């Protein structure tokens, strides 16, 4: 394919009256990939270009878009639409600031634990692809994106095939795939299958461990011949991954695991990073004072009791993760974005220090209290920011957004941690203000999952006339939390995302078929908390998680006497949940 001057230097060009090209970021399959700005929504997208005049390129691009768009999985790049502009087709997809795994491997092989993590996510993504009756057919390091925030994304469905549609490609090569990652049966000319994709996944993990593909140094034809003969080497660096890797690379496709089985086997390997880091993130046990629920930056500045006020924006359309910049925080440790923990107005960046500990940088969207918050006021970019000193191993900042809401940025860690939490909070705040200046309101890219609590009104789950409800509802941001307050008692309904419930979460009961756990003083002194299990899900690390509703009753001690009302209210909420 050849490109005109316009192709080589189109920065600033507007595609389909909507997408403004910013910079060329790579090339893949049949097209060039650009970072672009969607001028209608303000979001950054990737735009993949193909000449309609190029043989088969337009047809391949349309097929890639149709197949990839049918897969909904956090480890598969999101495909938005196909647009045409003059003699070109453009595939608009999710933009992931990243490098390919192939680029990463030019610098070094990866340690066993990191390869296991990548493998779990890719296998989970591949299982979702296979569930849609699609074969990827070219899984290799060049088609795996490693995001700056640690995300892993499977991309490039350019030669994928729908088994359900029984697609055939008249312009297909003798075999589909890349030498060094071909399954033996495909190298021999047999049709690819789901088992062939699993082999390619195993070959990708082999390359990640060794730093180079199988049969490195040989010609492409020699690699194909070695694969066809079933001459499959094993990685010397596999360690605990040796057993699952051997199954994925078995020359006999009938003996290979499914993608879902491979994900489970990799997740069970000792030394996996994600379960270790998750062990420190407790669902509750949050102090009730300055840091409860919202990030207060100094005594008296803004408490969890501050109710929401009407605002001229759609709170549920905003995404706090779009205000984070993991690259800006890298000097403080390995960064990891955690978009699905806590309430829906929250996004976290974890800064791993390498010893199993981490700093948590939390970004939350809050309704404005109506009065200016107390604290030290300064100007950061185009925004007023209220700050304060380190307090209770937390340092927080409040960004005052003119549209009528606040962005709370909080850096927290264990007591005595060797980090400057206020410096970290300042860096994260600077990134958030730059994102707000550049993109405006941080609009959410996609819809919430089906049946998610994100679509439920927390204030509608309790009857204000019930004797246990002490006052009228006061909604918080997005109506994902609600406060009912009286002279002596306060009741809060709070949506949460965290680990599945167990005995550590309190006494067990059920109502309307839903599990409930109740514990006194779990949400701070003078509280009783009941948790209603709602929707199980898996997070971006493929770890089982749970959406739940918290009922927190505050009052005078002894706290145990508050658990009766908490249990009654939890039962009412369980019956009202959709």
UniProtKB/TrEMBL annotation:
<dbReference type="InterPro" id="IPR011009">
    <property type="entry name" value="Kinase-like_dom_sf"/>
</dbReference>
<keyword id="KW-0812">Transmembrane</keyword>
<dbReference type="GO" id="GO:0004674">
    <property type="term" value="F:protein serine/threonine kinase activity"/>
</dbReference>
<keyword id="KW-0808">Transferase</keyword>
<dbReference type="InterPro" id="IPR000719">
    <property type="entry name" value="Prot_kinase_dom"/>
</dbReference>
<keyword id="KW-0067">ATP-binding</keyword>
<dbReference type="GO" id="GO:0005524">
    <property type="term" value="F:ATP binding"/>
</dbReference>
<protein>
    <recommendedName>
        <fullName>non-specific serine/threonine protein kinase</fullName>
        <ecNumber>2.7.11.1</ecNumber>
    </recommendedName>
</protein>
<keyword id="KW-1133">Transmembrane helix</keyword>
<keyword id="KW-0418">Kinase</keyword>
<keyword id="KW-0723">Serine/threonine-protein kinase</keyword>
<keyword id="KW-0547">Nucleotide-binding</keyword>
<feature type="domain" description="Protein kinase">
    <location>
        <begin position="19"/>
        <end position="285"/>
    </location>
</feature>
<feature type="transmembrane region" description="Helical">
    <location>
        <begin position="287"/>
        <end position="306"/>
    </location>
</feature>
<dbReference type="Pfam" id="PF00069">
    <property type="entry name" value="Pkinase"/>
</dbReference>
<dbReference type="InterPro" id="IPR008271">
    <property type="entry name" value="Ser/Thr_kinase_AS"/>
</dbReference>
<keyword id="KW-0472">Membrane</keyword>
